[in-house]
Amino acid sequence: MSQPRKDAPARADGQAGSDAPTRADGPARSDAVRNRERILRVAMAELTVRPDVPLSTIAKKAGVGQGTFYRNFPHREALVLEIYRYEMQQVADAAAELLSNREPEAALREWMDRLAGFAMTKAGLADAIRLVTSAPGGPAKPGPAPVLEAAGTLLRANEEAGTVRAGVTPDDFFLAIAGLWQLDPREEWQPRAARLLDFVMDGLRAGAPGR
User: Which residues contact 128 (CB under 8 A, 6 or more apart)?
Assistant: First the structure.
C-alpha cells in the first residue's frame, strides 16, 4: 500500500491531502494572491540557504497557516518548481513593460540586469531544484521558452531601431551571456555581472546601422 507524502497534510478523515491545490471558480481574491506571492518570496530565500528546509518552516515565516500553504503548494515539488517558473515569468513579462516605457536600447540593457538577477536566483535554487527533479519519475525542470521569447522581442525591437547588429538570435544572445551562470550568488556578483553585460551590449552594438 502506498504511503501519503511526507510533506502533505492529513485530512480529518485520516486520508492524505490532495495533490492539487483548491481553486475558486472566480478570480483569486487579492489576499490569496498576496499570500501566494509572500510564500514564494519566503520560500526562495529559505531554499537558497537550505534546500531541504521543512515546508512548515516556510509557512510559519510567511505568516500563513498550514491549510493556506498546502492549498497553494500541496508538496515540495510544486513549491520549488513554481518559484522557478514564477521568477522566470516575471523576467519574461518585464520585456514588454520595459519596451513600453524605454527606448529599445535602454529597455534591452535594463532587462539584462533583471535577467542577471534571475540567473542568481536559479543558481541559488540549484540544489533545491536538483532534489525535486532527480528522483525517478520526478517532475522535469521548466524550459526557458518564456525568457527566450522575451529576448527575441527585445532584439527585434533593437534591430528595427538600428541599435544592435542585424541577425542576432536569442540563442546567440544567451551564448554571449553564458558567463552569468558562472557567478556565485553568495558573493558580490552585481559588479561582475554589470561588467559582463556591458561587454555584451558593446558587442551587440558593433556594426549596428544606427551608429
Answer: 47, 48, 51, 80
